User: Which sequence fits this backbone?
């Protein structure tokens, strides 16, 4: 909720500068729907709506009949329904990261910002008197720190920490792992139009996502406990259809797995029958597959905290698929920890 407030404030600031937040960030109010197809799933969705309302968010349960006017192409069956959060927005990851990076570079002339890409961090230099970290050694430079060092390296954060402290007496286990995901992006797909961001209930059930490297035969029936795929669907700022999503623990492998792409397409077709009229092979020239590694934590929560026994070193990692959407709230929290400022959100649940 705090990150949502900060994104809204940023979008308003961009608008006040005479820019369009849609073009700059892909900032688009779509609302989100979490959908289910069975009575049991709808019971869980109603409970989730109650939780959201108690947290202060606007939310409602939509029956199958209600959904017909909101998403005509979505077919859930007579028992289906959705938890609807109307105030949710979406952003475009590539546009947003480019905007943030450009903004950072304005501070380079003042000596407040610099980039050292493609320079692996190899070790820490510590003060013999205080034990504080005074610099990070990279393969090419020594980067001195006046205030704090923050490790925010996603699924690589565990190995970065290990490399940095390997010559010390500190023992630290940060169990972040890379969880591979595929997205299928289709240009100029006129057969389907979506008004909201949609995902099936199984997607948000962190424990149900597969921890196996194997995939299943989609013809044998879908099981959230064995399949790496859950349905997500939205339209991006350019009108492209974006379908997902998969979750696999297969190390740092980022190769495209066509069997997973097939499962994503077939799973989406179970919710949007109009997709079954089109063969995935027909879309070869108009499709893009995106593969990335999400920083997975076993308990589903990121860590935003001091690194134990190193007073001026901090960690912000483990957000899995929410790193960008929670970036502003995370930045505010870690900055307040570093500076000793009052927090807007209790950081205790995110401690190491």
Assistant:
């Amino acid at each position: 909720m705090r990150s949502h407030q900060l994104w809204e404030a940023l979008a308003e600031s961009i608008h006040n500068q005479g820019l369009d937040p849609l073009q700059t960030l892909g900032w688009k109010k779509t609302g989100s729907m979490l959908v289910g197809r069975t009575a049991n799933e709808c019971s869980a969705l109603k409970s989730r709506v109650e939780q959201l309302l108690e947290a202060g968010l606007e939310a409602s349960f939509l029956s199958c009949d209600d959904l017909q006017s909101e998403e005509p192409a979505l077919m859930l069956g007579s028992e289906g329904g959705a938890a609807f959060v109307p105030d949710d927005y979406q952003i475009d990851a590539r546009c947003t990261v480019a905007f943030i990076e450009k903004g950072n570079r304005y501070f380079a002339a003042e000596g407040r910002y610099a980039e050292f890409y493609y320079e692996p961090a190899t070790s820490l230099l510590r003060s013999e008197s205080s034990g504080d970290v005074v610099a990070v050694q990279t393969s090419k430079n020594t980067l001195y720190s006046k205030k704090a060092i923050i490790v925010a390296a996603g699924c690589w954060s565990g190995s970065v920490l290990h490399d940095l402290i390997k010559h010390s007496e500190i023992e630290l286990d940060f169990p972040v792992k890379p969880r591979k995901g595929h997205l299928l992006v289709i240009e100029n797909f006129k057969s389907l139009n979506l008004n909201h961001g949609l995902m099936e209930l199984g997607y948000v059930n962190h424990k149900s996502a597969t921890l196996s490297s194997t995939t299943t035969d989609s013809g044998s029936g879908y099981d959230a406990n064995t399949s790496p795929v859950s349905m997500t669907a939205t339209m991006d700022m350019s009108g492209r259809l974006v379908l997902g999503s998969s979750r696999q623990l297969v190390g740092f492998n980022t190769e495209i797995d066509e069997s997973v792409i097939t499962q994503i397409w077939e799973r989406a077709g179970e919710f949007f029958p109009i997709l079954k009229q089109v063969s995935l092979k027909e879309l070869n020239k108009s499709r893009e597959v995106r593969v990335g590694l999400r920083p997975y934590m076993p308990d589903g929560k990121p860590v935003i905290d001091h690194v134990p026994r190193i007073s001026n070193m901090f960690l912000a990692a483990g957000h899995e698929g929410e790193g960008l959407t929670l970036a502003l709230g995370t930045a505010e929290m870690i900055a307040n920890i570093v500076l000793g400022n009052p927090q807007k959100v209790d950081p205790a649940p995110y401690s190491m």
User: Anything to note?
Assistant: Residues 210-225 have pLDDT under 50 and may be disordered. The longest strand covers residues 177-186. The first helix runs from residue 2 to 16. The chain is about 25% helix and 25% strand.
